[in-house]
Amino acid sequence: MPAPASAPERILQRLDWQVVRKLDGLLQGDYRSLFRGQGIDLADLREYQPGDDVRAIDWNVTARMDVPYVREYTEDREITAWFLLDLSPSVDFGTVDAERQKRSVLIDFVSALARLLTRHGNRVGAVLYASSVGAPIPARGGRDQVLRLIRDLLDQPQLTRAPETDLRELLDRARRQIKRRSLVFVISDFVSVPGWERSLELLARRHEVLAIRLVDPRELELPDLGPMIVEDAETGEQLYVDTHDRGFRARFATAVAARERALTLAFGRAGVDAVTISTDEDLVRAIVRIAARRRMRRA
Q1: What pLDDT does 298 receive?
Q2: Cα–Cα 20 to 30 A to 281, which of 15, 92, 189, 296?
Q3: What is the pLDDT of residue 171?
Q4: How many helices and strands, by DSSP H and E, does the chain display?
Q5: How far is the CA of 253 from the CAs of 208, 221, 223, 259, 262, in angstroms?
Q6: Structural domains of the chain ordered from first start
Q7: How many CB atoms are closer than 10 A to CB 283?
Q8: Residue ranges of the chain whose pLDDT lies below 70
Q9: Cβ–Cβ < 8 Å for 23, 116
């Protein structure tokens, strides 16, 4: 009798059947739109022309020449992709399903994309952040690398208390450690102390960066559930609120709208393509949506 499959094996088998096979049909092999953006390898530099993507500006050359220069890239056959993963306590939240937290969405998303990438001969690596930044998982190819990513993610404990999340640590560490221009997925709920925006912009100058923002519906819209006690997942601070109070719900909606505007502005300033994935969204639908968006940006 064969030995029972390990937890990483079971997750990968489930995703192969429920996600990867469906994507094969829906994308019809056009993973170029998902993984290829402005290219990976630098081919040439030329002066900026009206209509060029400002994200392609080479700021170092521009500073030396006093004239804007843009990078042109050739798309080689192999991609190196890195996943920068926020596993701080705020991702251990979900109201749609007991098994559907932002953390579980993160694990499934990373596993599915890693499987798609390595299946086509590319390499994937990861940098994990919980209460601090851990040692990177070196970029490698193959199915075993996907299983290692899943195993390392499952082995990360769910912290009940941690210092306030500072995404600058994750982004700055990645910028120092990832030498070759790569495709970088920053996967987080972006609940962090301020200051990470500049680090994201610096990372995007060297790499092609996609920000994948994880949300839960209750973080965007507060229903009328009456009095309750809410707790900050990271600091443990508790607050009594009355969600029956229309004024409170209105103030909550105003705060959410302000945060959404601030995030949109931050991603735009960094020149980063940003996509939101909710805990109540089908993962296949979300990945197809990302591919369609990137295809439109390439057009």
Answers
A1: 62
A2: 296
A3: 97
A4: 11, 10
A5: 33, 7, 11, 10, 14
A6: 7-31+78-219+260-293 (3.40.50.410), 41-74 (no CATH)
A7: 18
A8: 1-4, 29-30, 32-33, 36-45, 51, 53, 55, 72-77, 232-236, 297-299
A9: yes
